[in-house]
TrEMBL record:
The record marks K86 as: Lowers pKa of active site Tyr. PROSITE patterns: ALDOKETO_REDUCTASE_2, ALDOKETO_REDUCTASE_3. The gene is LOC103263300. Belongs to the aldo/keto reductase family. Gene3D superfamilies: NADP-dependent oxidoreductase domain. One of its GO terms (molecular function) is oxidoreductase activity. Residues 20-302 form the NADP-dependent oxidoreductase domain. It comes from the Eukaryota. Substrate binds at H119. This is Aldo-keto reductase family 1 member C23-like protein. One of its GO terms (biological process) is hormone metabolic process.
Amino acid sequence: MTDLRPSHSVKLNDGHCMPKLGFGTYTTEDTPKSKAGEATRVAIDVGFCHIDAACFYQNEEEVGQAIREKIADGTVKREDIFYTTKLWHTFMRPELVRPALERSLKKLGLDYVDLFVIHEPFAMKPGEELLPRDANGKFIFDTVDLCDTWEALEKCKDEGLTRSIGVSNFNHQQLELILSEPGLKYKPVCNQVECHPYLNQSKLLAFCKPKDIVLVAYGTLGSSRDPRWVDKDSPHLLEDPVLKAIAKKHGRSPGQVALRFQLQRGVVVLAKSFNEKRIRENFQVFDFELAPEDMKAIEGLNRNFRYLPLKFVTDHPNYPFFLKNIDCELLHITTGISFI
């Protein structure tokens, strides 16, 4: 049923294929978890077969049920669905990696996932609390070797619990750490990062492409504006006059233009909406093409602006990127981290 033409999917470095357009399932605190399940059903009916989720979203039961229902009613087969889940900070110790994936599989009601990625390159205190804090409200970090965590992901792949493995929110230096690991068995198939016209990640994309690591973009429409993580004064990407003008030229929406921009750069895109009209609209991005001058104009919008700067972990030694308005050179001096 699912359209897996080459124009709609990309071959990963381990031989599996990933659909170029994915459906995001993150929910804000004030959104009922059931909405994620409802939206996933609509997304599959529309034609999405790449479903992006995570332990941290705390809605894998609802999303898994939606997938199983769509399999049961004949809309899709299991092999049509490409499902991604992520390893959370509190499960980064090698001995906790497989149990974390098995917990997700149990919630999903699935035998395997298609992609298992390290959610972010920093560890936090193990336990049931997803964001552990001390008595003073400070987040409690953990020290874990990323290569040891990666080796545990490799074992999950070997044991058939996931078909592919990758990373998320890694900078180029952290990717190099994995790639240069002695005895590396599998390269990351992807690096999932915030990426949109205001943060086009051109340097990171140029780093990943020759290494056959797919860049997967989240926040492609300007993020969910969750007040826990996103500054309320952040610019509204889809209100940008350049995007609106290009959209008008093509008879499309600014969101469709933002998604199409990424596809033409060779980036896999995730689009999140729980509105049925927008879900349908977001899927209609394969039947038009942006002209070279359109691409150049959108590239000119880059301002290295992050909607999700992960401010709560800036003092973690594995913090992966710089904050807007913070001196990158100073951060390099104080943390030893190089940034892309």
